[in-house]
Amino acid sequence: MYINGVHDTYDINQNKIIGIRPNAEEAIKIANEIISMKDHNDRDLLNLASIYKNGMHNFEPNLNKAEEIYNYLINNCSSEDVFIECKESLDYINKFRVHSWLNLKIQQLPKLDAAYFERQNRQIPQTRQIPQNRQIPQNRQVHIHIDPDTLTYNQVMFIENQNQTDLKNYNDPQNTHNTTVVSTVKQSINNLEDLAISLDNNINQDKTVKDIYDMLLLRKQTDKIRDAIKALDIITNDNTKLMSTDKSTKEALALVYNRFDTLVKEQNIPRSNLEDNLIDSLSNMIEHDQIVCKTGQFNNIVSTLDHIDPLVSIRPIYAIREELLSKAAVIKNENPELENQDLRDKIITDLKKEYVSSGILTDDKFNVEVGSWINDIE
Description:
By secondary structure, the chain is mainly alpha-helical. It has helices at 24-35, 42-54, 63-76, 80-101, 179-198, 205-218, 223-236, 249-257, 260-267, 271-283, 294-303, 317-334, 340-355, 363-371; strands at residues 9-10, 16-17, 241-242, 247-248, 286-287, 290-291.
C-alpha cells in the first residue's frame, strides 16, 4: 500500500474519491531491505537508481548517487535489458548536466517503469559476457535517509513481486514513464505540429487557453472540473519545455485543442466527446492535490486524441513488441522469394526504418527486441 498508494478518482457525479498517498519512506526502506538480501536481482537496484535519478515530491534527484548505481550495474548486471536501460539513463544524466551548465531549462525524462519487467525472464541475445549469480559487495549497498516531515505524494515505482513476466497493469496507471510511450507521444506531437505548419495554421496559445477556460466554466462545477481548472492554471503559467520534445505543455495543449474543429468536421465526432476527453486529461494531472510531473502533464494532454486522431498514437513497449512481430510476419508473407538470412535482413531493414529512424526505439532497444526472435525466422 505505501509503495503504490491508491489514486484519487471520481464518482458518477464527478465528486472526488480521495485515495491514499504512498509512503515513500517505507517504500525506500523496503527497497533497501530487498537489496540487502542474497537473492536480490538487478531490477531491485535499478528501481532504487530511478528514484535517485528522477527524485520525488519534496525529494530532489541525486544524480551522483544514481550515476554510481548505474555504473555498477553496467559492469555487473546479468541482463542485456538492464545494461541498455542503465546506458540510456547515464546518457540522460550527462545531457542533463550539460543543459544545467548551459543554464537551459529542462524537465526530467521519465522514470523506468514496470513495463520493463515484462522482459525480465525473456530470452535475449547474449552479445557480451555477463557474470551470473553474482552478489553485490557489502560496501556497494545503497541506503537513503529521508526526513519524513518533508515527504509528499509521488508515484513511487516499485514492484513487490519480481516474478511477474507479463505485467501490463502498471503501478503508473497512465503509463507516463514508459519510454516508448514518451517516444510515441513525441512522434504524435510532431505530427500535429507538421500538419499545422503545412496548413499555415497560426495557433494562438492564449486564445486556446481562454477558450478552454470558458468551456470549463460552463460546466457544472464539480471536483473533477475544479481539478481540471487547477491543472490548466498551472499549465498556463509554466512555459518550461520538456527536454524530450522541446515543447511546453501549453504548446502541446494548443496543438491538441486546435484539432477539435477538424475532427468534428471530418470524422463527425461530437465536440462534447472531445471536450470530455480533455477534461479527463486535465483532471488526471491532479493527484492528491498536487500536479503530476511534467512528463505526466504532457502525455495526458496528447492522450486526449489517442486513437481518435489518426495523427496520434501512443503505445507502450508491449504494444510496440506486438507490432514488430506482426509486421515481421507481413514482410515474410509479402516476400515469398526470400528466405533465411535474406529474409531476416529485409525484416530488420524495414522495421529499423520505421521504428529507429522515427525515434520510437533506440538502436539498442531495437536490437534487443528484434534480436530475441529474428534468428527463428526462416
